Amino acid sequence: MHLLQVKNQAFGIATNISGANIPKGVQGVLGMAGQGLSRFHAKPFWQNLPLNQSLFSIYIRGANHNNHTIPFDGVLSLGNMDHDMFVGPLNYLPTVSANSWSVNFSGINVSNHIIKVATHTKALIDTGTVLIGGPRDAIEDFYRQFDGATEIKSEPGFFSFPCSSTPVVYLAFGNTQYKLKPADLILSEAKYEPDNQDERPDSDDFKCVGSVFATDDGDPWMIGGSFLNNVYTVFNNEDPRQIGFAPLNSRSYKSEVIPVGLPSSATSLLPTHWIFVCLIAVVQLF
User: Fold this and answer.
1) Residue 5's Cα: distance from chain center in Å?
2) Rounded Cα gap, residues 245 and 48, in angstroms
3) Where are the beta strands (DSSP E) in 117-228?
4) Nearest partner of 208 among 283, 134, 158, 280, judged by Cα
5) Mean pLDDT calculated for residue range 10-31
6) d(Cα 35, Cα 9) in Å, to the nearest integer?
7) In angstroms, what CA-CA distances link 170 with 55, 70, 108, 137, 192?
8) Phi/psi at 181 (nearest 5 deg)?
């Protein structure tokens, strides 16, 4: 076993924790953000390591990936990236903060319904959550594209919907859209909630809680595992500081992307051959 010595590393010991949702069994938290966010102004562990490159990269095995070549829930690589895990060039996006891993977010495509955001909208790329959070007006518009979706009264900001009602969802960063698997849109398992107790159960009676939720006003978008499960991600701290996304490459699951930004209308998403056919039809009319 090779032991790596890391000098002058600060550690914090907690006797009580509040305001953090730490799963049972987790014994600690390893901060990967910038030094400026540390209450003790401590240098992050990964930046104290003698790495070849000032970057780290992650693979998170999401729902239904079943990648038997990697018997882990995820892989964190410090100082390098595993080129066998992704295909194509990385889509690099400049960070918009010197300390947090935040980039500009372009919006959401829900079955060709475009939810646009203001220019220079910030999104925090957060490996510490499975959720995706955004402003209430955008999230309400998002769930209007789910048949039968309703906000959960006991959990404001969270929505439930029939588990069979999951549209096609892409998140857009820069000039690329990344598809989310239906399983990544679901936070909790199906729960039987019949509309009518006297009727036989049908698929609409099984409700799921969505992994996309409404944040408080003024908060940035938060992009967690529900998105990161579908891409390989590189956090590059060199100059320029940036985050890169690339489609996953595994035997059981390959990411689906649209290599164009969000269109101004849904017709822009028609396959090229259909656009060509439509043009021919217009010409023939004249």
Assistant:
1) 34
2) 25
3) 122-125, 132-134, 150-151, 159-162, 169-173, 176-180, 186-192, 206-210, 212-214, 221-223
4) 158
5) 76
6) 12
7) 26, 26, 6, 18, 28
8) -70, 145
Residue 184: phi, psi to the nearest 5?
Answer: -80, -5
pTM of the model: 0.82
CB 161 within 8 A of CB 210: yes
CATH of domain 53-271: 2.40.70.10
Sequence ranges of the domains in the chain: 53-271
Neighbours of 174 (CB within 10 A): 15
Strand-pair partners of 115: 108
List, for residues 99-134, the tens digit of each pLDDT value: 999 999 999 999 999 998 998 999 999 998 889 999
Instruction: Work out the mean pLDDT of the chain and round it to a whole number.
Output: 82
Q: Which two tokens stand for residue 141?
A: 């518009």
- For β-strands 212-214 and 132-134, DSSP reports them as parallel
Give the pLDDT confidence score for residue 4 in this predicted structure. 77
Taking every pair of Cα atoms in the chain, the longest distance, rounded to a whole number of angstroms, is: 78
Residue with tokens 């006297």: 198
